[in-house]
Q: What sequence folds into this?
């Protein structure tokens, strides 16, 4: 037995050394030490190392702006694309760096020419910006009937076969579906989809696929050659630790000639790469931190370990909160989760008003930002895991929510007092 | 760092307040209503926003001048191939005479207007890029307004170099880059849209502000780092610590004037504009007359960059070759004298480039590599 304990301790020591995840990593970031960030997924967070590198690039630009913008930046961006394309496994010429996924989605949807009889499909859980862009496109360019929503519920959202079956039902009623846009990892609720299967399904039917992978890179493994979408967008500042903000847009080679950036500038009528490079004067420094973010991750652990820690933590935190609140998690099978989880709020939160009051209360009185949403007639919140988080963080938040709710029991009484709080 | 401390609080609460304060401060600086301006990343964004928002009918025309900035011309080209027809974008040619005489310029414009119907909009510079000319946009805007033509003014070089009074100028659309002459961090710009037209203009990225008021529509354009925008406020403060605005404008304008005259004298050439009221903080000097072909101009440009670390923009206009110099508060006349001499050195093949540092570095690297290699053998 003794011979067993000692090596175990050593092994434990080694593991703690090799997997340093948790609060020990907090000092590497610039977050308020008293702030529990359970919403990393919205805006991301970059380590101090990244900000040092950002400053370096900015100072290089200031040292000799003409040299930076006319000569050096092209070399740096080429190197970056080569490095990034290895990380996501694609040809470096097939990806461009843009400011954010919103720019990528708008570039694609505004570039493609749709015939008057062609249809675009999307799911009800698509991100707000995507739906609004589709609305803009359908108002300004096409007719409203051509943009069709497919409804998913709590069953179809976590079962690829059922999802595709539901999709097929819609397809049977429509003709000339040109394009479908869907998430790799959706936002609210946060669900991870089996997009490899979905892409194959749509390709057999000759439907173009735009995959909104905003939450993907850095959260889960990304292999574009294997997935083979027509268009893919992902934000590097969400889960890859780059400086805000930068994103990747991938366009399949055959389709590159159809896609133009939303800003026309000096690259127009040149190659795909040139067209997307020059979009007016900008600070490219946040793009360049992509390279440093990849290096930073290597100093912490290897990619699989990072994915795994965040994934496991999201699952455990979800189960813990569901237990504390006597509710449930939305997704029963963990393969439909990435690094975020959706937990049903305590049952007393059963109207939109109550949900909003709780949300505001948590921000104003407890400095907790906990995204909440309604899905398929139930109210959920979304938590994000992260390498600097530990399970007890979510336990703390779980208690805070319960406290906040117990103070809300006197809702009719509080309704008057709320006006005071708004001015505070 | 504020954004990093608590990202949710920054993006969901604090940034709105900061941006509102900024807009109030900036609108006082350019004298307009704070709800009529929005902050965008750069002038390219602003130009694309306006030109791609407005619905042009198939019989309507857009006018522009030959000296318009390359990006503007390419955007018009994009629109005329993808959305309209090529005949709908018409160029007006200016030469060295019409470019520096508002009456002649408007006369030339009138000649074009007589031949074309249904002109909906004209794009023109406040201060053009190459060549760099300060136009009397107030007179021009009045001229076009009388004819019911929308005015899109590209004032990329304006803010921070010359006074801007948007109420007085009264354009329909105005764009200017704050990072060029206002000392803000790269990059931030201002887009002004006259109230009556705000409902027609949409940002090139549709996001959460869609179908809401103008201000909201242009605020949320995806996650971005707003810090560069916020430095506009600090840039205005910084300038106050140096001198008052008129002093800054005046120093740069005078320096541009003197530098231009000096170089013209050194090179035995001339400056493009006869009257200094047609330049702002930049000047256009004809290159020494031996530079008389595009090839020679390109060679001179490259040699200056590679051997002397000097970036001097050069261009052809109305059959002559010019360079453009910019004044700045950290520059003095002798800087331009140095550059003038370097250009002459190159042209007359005088002393070898003084900056052999690059060559020294390479030979040092080779030497050290050799030593290391030799050391390895042991």
A:
């Amino acid at each position: 037995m003794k011979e067993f304990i000692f090596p175990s301790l050593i092994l434990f020591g080694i593991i703690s050394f090799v997997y340093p995840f948790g609060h020990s990593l907090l000092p590497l970031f610039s977050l308020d030490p008293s702030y529990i960030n359970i919403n990393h997924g919205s805006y991301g967070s970059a380590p101090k190392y990244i900000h040092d590198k950002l400053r370096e690039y900015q100072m290089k630009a200031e040292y000799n702006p003409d040299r930076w913008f006319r000569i050096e930046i092209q070399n740096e961006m080429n190197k970056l694309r080569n490095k990034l394309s290895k990380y996501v496994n694609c040809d470096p010429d097939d990806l461009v760096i843009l400011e954010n996924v919103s720019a990528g989605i708008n570039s694609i949807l505004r570039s493609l020419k749709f015939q008057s009889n062609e249809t675009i499909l999307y799911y009800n859980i698509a991100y707000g910006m995507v739906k609004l862009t589709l609305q803009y496109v359908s108002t300004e360019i096409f007719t409203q009937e051509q943009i069709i929503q497919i409804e998913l519920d709590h069953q179809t959202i976590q079962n690829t076969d059922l999802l595709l079956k539901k999709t097929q039902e819609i397809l049977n009623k429509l003709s000339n579906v040109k394009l479908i846009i869907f998430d790799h990892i959706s936002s609210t609720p946060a669900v991870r989809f089996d997009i490899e299967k979905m892409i194959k399904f749509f390709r057999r039917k000759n439907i173009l696929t735009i995959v909104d992978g905003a939450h993907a890179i850095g959260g889960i493994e990304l292999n574009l050659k294997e997935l083979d979408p027509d268009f893919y967008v992902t934000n590097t500042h969400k889960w890859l630790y780059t400086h805000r903000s930068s994103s990747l847009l991938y366009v399949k080679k055959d389709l590159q000639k159809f896609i133009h950036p939303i800003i026309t500038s000096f690259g127009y009528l040149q190659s795909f790469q040139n067209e997307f490079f020059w979009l007016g004067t900008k600070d490219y420094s946040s793009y360049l931190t992509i390279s440093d973010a990849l290096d930073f991750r290597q100093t912490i652990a290897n990619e699989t370990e990072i994915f795994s820690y965040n994934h496991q933590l999201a699952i455990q935190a979800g189960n813990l909160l569901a237990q504390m609140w006597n509710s449930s998690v939305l997704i029963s099978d963990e393969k439909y989760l990435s690094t975020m989880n959706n937990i049903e709020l305590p049952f007393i939160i059963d109207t939109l008003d109550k949900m909003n009051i709780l949300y505001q209360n948590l921000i104003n009185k407890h400095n907790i930002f906990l995204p909440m949403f309604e899905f398929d007639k139930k109210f959920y919140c979304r938590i994000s895991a992260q390498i600097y988080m530990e399970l007890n963080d979510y336990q703390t938040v779980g208690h805070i929510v319960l406290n906040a709710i117990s103070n809300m029991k006197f809702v009719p009484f509080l309704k008057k007092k709320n006006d005071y709080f708004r001015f505070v | 760092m504020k954004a990093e401390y608590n990202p949710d609080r920054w993006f969901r609460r604090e940034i709105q307040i900061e941006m509102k304060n900024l807009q109030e401060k900036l609108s006082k600086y350019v004298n307009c209503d704070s709800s009529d301006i929005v902050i965008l990343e750069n002038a390219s964004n602003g130009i694309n926003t306006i030109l791609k928002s407005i619905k042009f009918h198939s019989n309507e025309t857009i006018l522009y001048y030959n000296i318009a900035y390359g990006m503007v011309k390419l955007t018009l080209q994009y629109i005329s191939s993808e959305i309209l027809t090529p005949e709908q974008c018409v160029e007006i040619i200016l030469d060295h005479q019409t470019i520096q005489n508002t009456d002649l310029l408007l006369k030339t414009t009138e000649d074009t207007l007589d031949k074309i119907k249904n002109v909906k909009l004209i794009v023109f510079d406040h201060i053009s890029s190459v060549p760099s000319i300060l136009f009397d946009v107030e007179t021009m805007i009045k001229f076009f307004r009388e004819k019911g033509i929308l005015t899109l003014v590209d004032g990329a070089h304006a803010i921070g170099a010359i006074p801007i009074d948007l109420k007085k100028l009264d354009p329909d659309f105005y764009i200017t880059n704050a990072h060029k002459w206002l000392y803000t961090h790269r990059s931030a710009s201002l887009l002004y849209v006259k109230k009556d037209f705000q409902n027609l203009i949409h940002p090139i990225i549709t996001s959460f502000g869609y179908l809401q008021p103008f201000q909201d529509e242009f605020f949320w354009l995806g996650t971005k780092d707003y810090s560069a925008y916020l430095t506009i406020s600090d840039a205005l403060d910084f300038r106050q610590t140096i001198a008052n605005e008129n002093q800054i404008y005046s120093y740069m304008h005078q320096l541009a004037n003197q530098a231009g005259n000096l170089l013209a004298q050194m090179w035995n050439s001339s400056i493009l504009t006869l009257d200094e009221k047609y330049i702002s903080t930049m000047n256009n000097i004809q290159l020494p007359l031996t530079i008389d072909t595009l090839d020679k101009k390109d060679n001179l440009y490259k040699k200056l960059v590679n051997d002397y670390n000097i970036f001097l923009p050069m261009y052809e206009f109305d059959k002559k070759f010019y360079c453009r110099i910019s004044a700045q508060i950290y520059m003095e006349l002798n800087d331009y004298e140095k550059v003038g001499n370097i250009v002459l050195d190159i042209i007359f093949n005088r002393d070898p480039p003084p900056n052999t540092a690059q060559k020294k570095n390479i030979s040092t690297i080779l030497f050290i590599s050799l030593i290391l290699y030799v050391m390895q053998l042991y």
